[in-house]
Input
Amino acid sequence: MDYEHIVAQLSKILSAKRLQHSVGVSKTAEKMAEFFGCDKMKAKMAGILHDVAREVPVDELLQRAQAFGIVVNDMEKAEPILLHASLAAKLAQVKFQIHDVEILQAIFLHTTGGPHMSPLDKIIYLADVIEPGRNGGNLEELRKVAYIDLDKAMLMALDQSISYILARGGLLHPATIEARNELLIKKCTPTQHTI
Ligand SMILES: [Fe+2]
Ligand SMILES: [Fe+2]
Output
């Protein structure tokens, strides 16, 4: 399905505000992809579809995820809203005929992040946080760093997300911690010189 067609479909299932957010993520992701030499079309597609399941009622998320054969863990049972990312990846595939695994993975990881994220995964994660419709927090700094160093921006965004969750006494997803640990270890590992 092409981009315009997807937007038309999304306008029937998402609120105007959510659609505006998704367009914002899509445009931001496209811009970042251009800047970092990634596939712009993949970024645009992942961005527009990342929240396709965000307005599925919480009590339906579990049921719909299980109907798609998504394995639901205890964390997701306790916080079904987390499932909107994996459900979105399934819907992108089944309803919107997106079969590119890189796009599907970026959609899948957009809420929790995770280890071994590709540049596209990082771009979608960050675009979701910094798109023009978002405000508050430390966004101005993050918006600058997001165009300088993807890993540094990811660390900032993950720290911000973890602080937000902790302040509310929420559950921390292991994938979020793994993503942060991996970036910190990478940052702390000295560059190997061969001479
Ligand atoms: Fe989301
Ligand atoms: Fe989003």
